[in-house]
Amino acid sequence: MDQKKPLKQVLSDIRSTGAQNPPAATSSANFEHLSDQSILRLYESIRHQVEADRAMGGRYRLVGEAAKTRAQVLRAALLQRGLQFKEIQW
């Protein structure tokens, strides 16, 4: 890892890895470096976006499938850490 890769190579690696391991299949280990508070904030942010979406009557969609997948991974991390949180009502 001492060698630096060109940006195009790094992006290519990320794209190819993402195709093989979609976010839903990844574990909550992605968030090991984050504090409990940080994970809670990320999850709460998505929950607030969902509530805003609902408040607008569904005319616009603020939250898509990517956010839903991210919320599922965050939820798994929260459960693994034994933290209390308010569930997102999709």
Describe the structure.
The chain has helices spanning 7-20, 36-55, 65-81. By secondary structure, it is mostly helical. The protein has a domain at 30-90. The radius of gyration is 16 Å and the shape is flat. The model is unreliable at 22-28 (pLDDT under 50).
Secondary structure layout plus pairing:
Blueprint: H1 7-20, H2 36-55, H3 65-81
Helix pairs in contact: 2-3
Provide the helix percentage: 55-70%
Nearest-angstrom radius of gyration?
16 Å
Tell the overall outline.
Answer: flat
Low-confidence parts, pLDDT < 50 over ≥5 residues? 22-28
Q: How does the major sheet shape up?
A: none
How large is the count of helical segments?
3
Give the tags.
90 residues; single chain; mainly alpha; 3 helices
